[in-house]
Specification:
Length: 245
């Protein structure tokens, strides 16, 4: 069975949406992954199909009910595989490439998309949901976050990226941001391509790219740079120190 994503949402028609296009869309049509979206509202039991209620303790907004969400999660988890259940939320652990790789190594994901103020805390506890954030900002719903997470996962599934699109050297693959890219024309609006890239010396090109990746990471992401230099200094590290140190 292929890697399978179940998305629990109040807007099931949003999926696959952009994931039906381009690389992820081709992989979907090729059966390398599959997706189903479950309408949370269809698990409501009252006449009005209520999925939310006012917060105990007062305050603005509405909260998604635990009983309705639990029924939806139960249905999704019953459809096979021992898949992690994730609640997309700004207070979750921030998504990174290492987390994406872990998710890709498993059978798939069950993703709960919140709306309103979020979901009742008890369903997070009862179902042991992993809380994941896509960044320090607030979206109006979890659906775009689920799409971001799925896009990041699907491109890493075996056979999805061809050699030309290979993710081996891209940002975060070795703890660094990626080096700059150039293509034709070699001279554009008076801006020349760095001569080393036209030299044909593969080792020189590799050294330049490494140094550029390190410079960009050092300048833009001190947090990543600190981790990278720590790892490079650790006993057993591959080459002992960054190229540009
Ligand atoms: N009251 C919540 C808070 O302050 O943390 C925000 C709720 S938000 C308006 C509605 C839903 O959008 C959330 O339940 C969550 O599913 C989703 N969401 C918003 N921002 C997100 C983010 N940065 N990462 C992942 N999901 C997010």
């Amino acid at each position: 069975m292929s890697w399978h994503a179940s998305v629990l949402t109040l807007f099931p028609e949003m999926f696959p949406g952009p994931l039906g296009q381009s690389l992820a869309g081709r992989a979907l049509r090729d059966g390398r992954w599959s997706i189903d979206s479950l309408d949370i509202r269809s698990f409501a039991t009252d006449r009005h199909r209520t999925v939310d209620d006012t917060p105990f303790g007062g305050g603005a907004g509405m909260v998604m009910r635990p009983d309705v969400l639990d029924a939806a999660l139960g249905a999704a988890l019953a459809t096979g595989g021992d898949r992690p259940a994730v609640y997309l939320t700004p207070r979750g652990r921030r998504l990174d490439q290492a987390m994406v790789r872990d998710f890709v190594a498993g059978p798939g994901l069950v993703l709960l998309c919140g709306r309103y103020e979020g979901v009742d805390e008890r369903v997070i506890e009862a179902r042991g949901l992993q809380e994941v954030s896509i960044g320090d900002y607030v979206l109006s719903g979890g659906e775009p976050a689920a799409m971001v997470l799925l896009d990041a996962c699907v491109r890493l599934l075996p056979g999805v990226m061809g050699a030309a699109e290979s993710g081996v050297e891209e940002s975060f693959s070795d703890g660094l941001l990626e080096y700059p890219h150039y293509t034709r024309p070699a001279d554009w609006q008076g801006r020349a391509v760095p001569p080393v890239l036209l030299s044909g010396h593969h080792a020189e090109v590799a050294r330049w790219r490494r140094a550029e990746a390190e410079r960009i990471t050092r300048e833009r992401r001190p947090d990543l740079w600190a981790r990278y230099t720590e790892n490079a200094a650790a006993p057993g590290a591959m080459d002992g120190r960054p190229a540009a140190a």
